[in-house]
Amino acid sequence: MEKHGLNKILWAERQMPVLFKIREKFKRERPFDGILISACLHVTSETASLVIALKEGGAEVALCASNPLSTKDDVAEALRNGYGIRVYARYGASKEEYYEHIEKALSIEPHITLDDGADLTAYLHQNFKKWGKNIKGGTEETTTGVVRLKSMAKKGVLKYPIIAVNDSQTKFLFDNRYGTGQSTIDGILRATNILIAGKNFVVCGYGWCGKGVAMRARGMGANVIVTEVDPIKALEAKMDGFEVMSMEKAAEKGDVFVTVTGDKNVIDVHHLEKMKNGVILANSGHFNVEINIEGLKNISHKVEKIRPDVERYILNNSKEVFLLAEGRLVNLAAAEGHPPEVMDMSFSNQALACEYIIKKCSELKREVYTLPSEIDREIASLKLETMGVEIDELTEEQRRYLESWEEGT
Ligand SMILES: NC(=O)c1ccc[n+]([C@@H]2O[C@H](COP(=O)([O-])OP(=O)(O)OC[C@H]3O[C@@H](n4cnc5c(N)ncnc54)[C@H](O)[C@@H]3O)[C@@H](O)[C@H]2O)c1
How many helices and strands (H and E) does the chain possess? Predict the structure, then answer.
């Protein structure tokens, strides 16, 4: 198992050249000597590349999982035994274990927290006297976590500065769109082996993740239906060529449903009751709240696991509904999560955000920040370089023209 995990880590590393360059720089400069980092991330081979880079930069890292179903146990074992990193995570952990693991990761009394969904950060805030004395700053990987942390900042309860890695362009434009787009389809296929072509495929939410899922489902021949609550996003979906309708109508039409909203009860009981026989439900939003699973249980008389990531619910109206991965992130629970090529950019942002915190913590307030755009552009330039893509540079004349107002018709 450990050898398998090690091979997975080395495979991911090959597809993550930008992070590798940062890792080499960290190895030379040791920006994290004496720094303790508590990280709550999906324990995958891509995450392994990030924590190894931080360790080689001098940090001591304690890693726990940001979802009970996303841990790749072989990777966790390889990190423990091959790299000497403390990993507190297990696929299928109960809620109690999940928080025990967070406690263990926090017990090192970190200088920096790395989070994906803000569970660790929120938990540290609830126990700040116990583990918070060294804290300098933290990072947040995903949209839902950023929403939670901005709410904490607004209410004046955030106790240390956070870098919203999610809000870097080299993160959300690629990870959320192309990463979630591809890996969500991958998760659905691995769980079910269904043919996507010809299906009515409902995507709930047309944000960055929803755009990616809709784009890829269409590419595989599905008739894609989008549901939204934001009129601008709905209009965008319509003009991108998708059917747009209310969830009430989509419920009657869909064969496969994917929620990617960051919202709760997007698929609610009254929708479930209207669905066709044999529909497939999946979620790729951060928490397992987007489909009302309690409600689904309440209107069903039988639930059974029929494949590793498929549960069959038999409703009281005799129809069948198939729920994937218990309504948790389908791309991580039923597949391997985002491909390393996009995590290369997301985790380069994470790595440089940690370095930024060390350099700038004395100037940062208890707020949620975005990384400076120079860092974002530097990551994009490095990525292009590793892809062998050259682009043009503005001439001096063009630069002046673009900054001026005098020249017109
Ligand atoms: N699966 C993954 O690996 C992965 C990767 C990145 C982000 N995420 C998560 O996916 C979720 C979406 O992220 P995003 O970056 O696309 O966010 P986003 O803010 O760009 O988009 C969310 C969209 O959902 C819409 N929405 C909200 N409530 C709705 C409802 N009731 N019905 C229909 N639409 C609704 C919003 O109007 C918005 O357009 C978040 O929870 C995020 O943390 C998951």
Answer: 19, 15
Distance 55 CA to ligand 1 centre (A): 32
pLDDT score at 2:
75
pLDDT digits (tens, 9 = 90+) for 169-214: 999 999 999 999 999 999 999 999 999 999 999 999 999 999 999 9
Q: Compute, in angstroms, the gap from residue 363 CA to the centroid of ligand 1.
A: 32
Q: Read off the pLDDT of residues 33-78 as tens digits, 9 standing for 90 and up.
A: 999 999 999 999 999 999 999 999 999 999 999 999 999 999 999 9
Rounded-to-integer distance, Cα 48 and Cα 53, Å: 9
Q: Which DSSP category does 194 fall into?
A: -
Q: Can you tell me the distance from the alpha carbon of 96 to that of 94, in angstroms, rounded to the nearest whole number? A: 5
The token duo for 122 is 């929120």
Pocket test for ligand 1, best of 176, 206, 227, 346 (most atoms within 8 A of CB): 176
Q: Is 312 exposed, middle or buried (0-12, 13-18, 19+ CB in 10 A)?
A: middle
286 C-alpha to ligand 1 centroid (Å): 8
AA letter at 179? G
Residue 1 confidence (pLDDT) above 70: no
Contact, 276 vs 324, CB < 8 A? no
Half-sphere exposure of 201 (CA within 13 A, CB side): 24
Cβ neighbours, 10 Å, residue 315: 17
Alpha helices (runs of H) in 246-285, residue ranges in sequence order: 247-253, 269-272
- Side-chain-facing half-sphere of 316: CA atoms under 13 Å: 8
Q: How far is CA 145 from CA 152, 219, 312, 336, in A?
A: 11, 30, 31, 21
Distance CA 253, CA 38 (A): 45
